[in-house]
Fold these 2 entries.
Entry 1:
Amino acid sequence: MFDFTADPDLPKPERYRQLVSAAAALTSGETDSTANMANVAALMAEFLPGLNWAGFYRLVDGALILGPFIGRPACIHIALNQGVCGAAAKTGTTQLVKDVHAFPGHIACDAASRSELVVPVYRGDTICAVIDLDSPETGHFDAEDAAGIEGLARALNGRI
Ligand code: SME
């Protein structure tokens, strides 16, 4: 059994430090990328309050395809010219969207989503996936969240 319980009173940077540490430990020595994404999706849901969706889209043959996640069923295929996830994978940059209704082309997989954070994950120098977090609260994510998930993505380089 793994016991990675997050303290609800932790300041955000410490919360992310513990999340990255737990993810590094859980994926250490495991070469199955699906298993690693599944465990990291579970950890994100455990450590990060206020989310309605947390998971991965994988970059396969030039488009994104749904990976392991926690949340409601989601759209399976996303082209790189579509949505927040497509923008992150196409540009290789973090997309911090305070209000998804103001983002042209946003894909509403869950009508409850109001803000979104998407961070590319690299395998070496090549993007292999994106981490996608959704919140039902407008403006839920800030620069500390972006930095925290970018740290998580760096820890997963070569593990998914
Ligand atoms: N909203 C995303 C699609 C994925 S769902 O949020 C799970 C987007 O616009 O890319």
Entry 2:
Amino acid sequence: MISPRMQDALNEQVRNEFYSSFAYLSMSAHFEHRNLPGFAAWMRVQAGEEYVHAMKIFDHILDRGGIVKMPAIAQPPVQFETPVTVFEQALLQERAVTKSIHDLYALAMETKDYPARVFLDWFVNEQVEEEKTAELVVEQLKMVGDDRPALLVLDRELGQRKPEAAGAGSAET
Ligand code: FEO
């Protein structure tokens, strides 16, 4: 049985992950409007991954007899500036999620919640990847600068991103 404290903390993380999903969708819509369909597609795939993250935690709470309290999700930003600032915002968002995952991990250690600790291992590793990916795109966009043709090449490249294989988002992965 999950402790009330861990249950509440995990419910809060469900909110964080859904918020991330909403925020990426908002960024995706922005890029569609700016005629950058590759960046828009990349953001849409990322939004789907965040949904999967939220559902992993949702299932973990339920698997342990806890109560899922579906949260209100704040409205993410709608107005954005240049592509590099959008991805910088994404990177900041990922860093904030990393901190919240680490706080959950610390809580699991402190309360000797071993199932939660093992469950959270996947998220700790995932955040390393998420930050690395966002940092890479930020750096590439900085290299591109005001070079419009190079921006279009990068847009096309990021548009190749595919959703994770079916099952990769299940609780077993
Ligand atoms: Fe689920 Fe990108 O953190």
